[in-house]
Amino acid sequence: MKVNKLSVVLLMVFGLLMFTTVNAQTSDSLQLDLNTALKIALSENPNVKVADMEITKKEYAKKSAYGALLPQFDLIGQYQRAIKRQTVYFDEGFGMGGGTIDPTKYTTPEELFVMQTVGKMFAPDPEKAGEGIQMGRLNVYTAGLNVSMPLVVPSLWKNIQMSQIDIQLAMEKARSSRIDLANQIKKSFYSLLLAQASYDVFKETYATDSLNLESIKNRFNQGVVAEYDVITADVRLKSLIPSILQSQNMMKIAELQLKMLMGIDSEMPLKVIGDLDDYRDTMFETIVPADTSLINNSDIKQFDLQNEMALKGYEMQKLQFAPTLVSSFNYMYMSQNNDFKFSTYRWDPFSMLGVTLSIPLFNGGQRYHNMKQSEIQLYQLSEQRKEVERGLKLSIKNNYDLMAKSMEQVVATESAVEQARKGYQITQKRYETGMGTIVDVNAAALAITSAELQYRNAIYDYLAAKADLEKTLGYDINATN
C-alpha cells in the first residue's frame, strides 16, 4: 500500500513536537512541586509585595497622626515693603488730657508739674488739628520662632484610633492577597497537571494505535484483513494529532500562567514534579472541615474592620461639636527702616504666650450633615456584610457538594477505566480471531481514552473545589497543600 505524502508530513511534524517536548523536559529546568510554587509566589509576586508595602505606608500614617499631638515649631521670616504708609489720627492730647488738669489728683507738687508739662507737649496745635500722622517705615523685617501645641482636640485622638484600625485593615488585605494568590497558584498548578495528564493519555493512545496500525498493515499485506481496516486505523491515528497538539498548547498556557503568578521569567524552563494520580489517595484521607462560621474569612474580617473604622469616623464627626484648646508661643525680632543699610539696622524683640479656646457654634449645618452621612455609611456596611455572608455560605455549600460529587466520579471512573481496558483487550482478541471488526476496536480504544480523561478531570475538580473552600474559610498560608 502506498502511504499518502500528507500522512508522512503529519507524522514527521508530530514526532518533532514530541521530541521537542521530551528534550525541554530533560534540559536544565526548575524542579517544581506545589509547596515550592507557593513559596516562590509568596516571595516574588508583585501583588503581595504591594500589599506588604501598604502596611508600611499605613504605619507611617499612624506615626503622622501621633505627630499632630506634639508641639509644632516653625521658623518665620517675613519682609514687607510699604507702598503707602498708614495715616493715623489722634484725639485731643493723644488721649492723655491736653485740657485742664485737676490738681487734687496729685499728691506732690512735682507730679503736678510733670503732668502739666506733658499735657502741654501733647496739646493739639489749632493750625494742624485736622491733619493725621503717617506711621511706620518703608521696610519691615520680621523673623522668629512660632510654637503651637494642641491641648484639648478630641478629633485628633479619634484620628489616632482610626489610623490603628487602618493598619489592621491593611494587614488583613495583605493576608487576603496571599490567600487569593495561594488559591490561584493551586488551581493553576492543578491545571498544569491536568494538561500534562491529558497529553500523556493522548500520547499513550497514539503509541498504542501506532503499533496497532503497523499490525493491521502487516495483516493486510498477508491478505488477512481488508484495506478498509488499514484506512480506518490510519484515520483513527491521525485524528489523535489535533488532540495532542491542543493538550500541548494547554500545557504551555497553564505553565505561562503559573510563571506569571509566581513572578518568575516566562522563559525559565519548568519541570513539574508529580501528577494528578498522586492526589487520588489524599482525597479520601483528607478531613474536610465542618466549620462554616466564616470567622477566618478575609472578606468578612475586612467588612468588620471597615465597619469599626466607619464607627470611629461617626464618633469623630460627633466630636466636631466639642470645644478645642490650643496653646501658642512666639518669639520674634522686628526691624523697620527706610533704607537697605543692613549693618545699621536695629532689631527689636517681642514675644507672646497664649491659649486659644474654640467653641463651635454654627457652620451652616456642615457638622450635622457630615454626621448623618456617617450614620448612613454604617447602615450600608451592615447590609453589604449580610449579602456577602450569604454569598460565602452558598459558595461553601457548593464547594462541599462539588467535592462529594468529584469523589463519587473518581470511584466511578476508576471502575470505568478498568472495564474499558478489559473491553479493549476482549475486542482486540475478537478482531484478531476474525470475530470482531476494526470499528469495535476503535470504539473500545475511544472508551479507554474517554474514561481516563474523565478520571483525571474528576480529581482536578475535587482539588479545585477544595482550594476554593480553603480560600472561603480563610485558611492561613503555610505552603502546604
Strand order of the largest sheet: 2-5-7-8
The name of the CATH topology of the largest domain is: Outer membrane efflux proteins (OEP)
Q: State the helical fraction.
A: 55-70%
Structural class of the secondary elements? Answer: alpha+beta
The CATH architecture assignment of the largest domain turns out to be Up-down Bundle
Beta-strand proportion: 5-15%
Order of helical and strand elements: HEHHEEHEEHHEHHEEHH
Number of strands: 8
What does this protein look like?
The chain has ten helices and eight strands. It has 481 residues and is α+β, with helices and mostly antiparallel strands. Strands 2-5-7-8 form a four-stranded antiparallel sheet, with no helix packed on it. A two-stranded parallel sheet has the order 1-6. The longest helix has 68 residues, at 154-221. Mean pLDDT is 84; it is low at 1-13 and 22-27.
Task: Set down the secondary structure blueprint.
Layout: H1 5-26, E1 30-32, H2 34-44, H3 46-67, E2 72-81, E3 87-88, H4 109-121, E4 133-134, E5 139-152, H5 154-221, H6 227-262, E6 270-272, H7 280-285, H8 298-319, E7 324-337, E8 348-358, H9 366-432, H10 438-473
Parallel strand pairs: 1-6
Antiparallel strand pairs: 2-5, 3-4, 5-7, 7-8
Summarize the structure.
This protein has 481 residues and is an alpha+beta fold.
Comma- or semicolon-separated keywords:
single chain; 481 residues; alpha+beta; Outer membrane efflux proteins (OEP); 3 domains; 4-stranded antiparallel β-sheet; two-stranded parallel ribbon; 10 helices; 63% helix; 12% strand; elongated; disordered N terminus
